[in-house]
Design goal:
The chain is of the alpha/beta class and 246 residues long. It has ten helices and eleven strands. Helix 7 packs across helix 8. Bound molecules: adenosine-5-diphosphoribose.
Length: 246
């Protein structure tokens, strides 16, 4: 159990592992996405410049797959915690899926973008927009009014993640930092735990997942197990205490 007190401010970072029990592959696990595809061919500005159709084939396959999945108890547990803690709760995800929102989470920071959003490659001023277009045989990549090609609104390798200022501010203020289902190898997210600890000695740091992450040394506690099983019974808040003891 992780006790969460009246004064606590909770920062949660999620990764691909929280969506594994919903049927979405992780990136580096068995049958992971990066075991099937090469990052440099489908998820970088160089890949886009070289072969934008191959990039759209990759994201089109992922969009089709994302239409078929539902949130799992891990997503619901975090939505409930948000409801209880209100603005003492901050959820940052590396995931591009919409399972947190489908489970009822209201304020989700997608630092790597969203699978069902696209934008103009030229940054012509048109904001990112909702989009579930997929590349079908023989189709052409849609063009923006400015003539630029439409690309997925995803943070590719070599690009800067979104909302970093809001994330840094929340890290500076958190008293509890939790990471769920992330291997701890991709920056800058892998350093968030260190950043939180560097800001405040007493911050409590915990990891939830079936195996220890690469940045395990920075976590006070590790709860080993699938997040869909661990998260629903992890938080001891006032409300859960009241519910329990009346
Ligand atoms: N519950 C919780 N965690 C799980 C589960 C589960 N049921 N199943 C697997 N995991 C854990 C694995 O142990 C692993 O540590 O999820 C982690 C997934 O790690 P990665 O595949 O490396 O995914 P992630 O850390 O989210 O990747 C970070 O890298 O490829 C880029 O942009 C992409 O956002 C992604 C980033």
């Amino acid at each position: 159990m992780i006790p969460i007190g009246r004064e606590d401010r909770v920062f949660i970072l999620t990764g691909a592992g929280i969506s594994a029990e919903s049927g979405l592959p992780t990136f580096r696990g068995m049958n992971g996405i990066w075991r099937t595809y090469r990052v440099e061919e489908v998820a970088s500005p160089v890949a886009w410049a070289r072969d934008p159709k191959l990039v759209w084939e990759f994201y089109s396959e992922r969009r089709r797959r994302h239409h078929t999945v539902q949130p799992n108890p891990g997503h619901y547990a975090l939505a409930r915690l948000e409801e209880e803690l209100g603005d003492r709760f901050f959820l940052c995800t590396q995931n591009v899926d919409r399972l947190h929102e489908m489970a009822g989470s209201r304020r989700v920071i997608h630092m790597h973008g969203k699978i069902f959003e696209s934008r103009c490659e030229r940054g012509c001023g048109r904001p990112p927009f909702d989009d579930d277009w997929t590349l079908e045989n023989g189709a052409e990549i849609p063009l923006c009014a400015c003539g630029g090609k439409i690309r997925p609104h995803i943070c590719w390798f070599g690009e800067t993640p979104f909302e970093m200022e809001r994330i840094a501010a929340a890290l500076e203020n958190c008293t509890v930092f939790m990471a769920v289902g992330t291997s701890g190898v991709v920056e800058p997210a892998a350093s968030f735990v260190r950043y939180a600890r560097a800001r405040w000695d007493n911050v409590r740091t915990c990891y939830i997942g079936p195996e220890e992450p690469s940045n395990r040394a920075f976590f006070d506690e590790v709860f080993l197990g699938p997040s869909g099983e661990v998260l629903p019974q992890l938080f001891a808040t006032e409300k859960s205490a009241t519910d329990l003891h009346g």
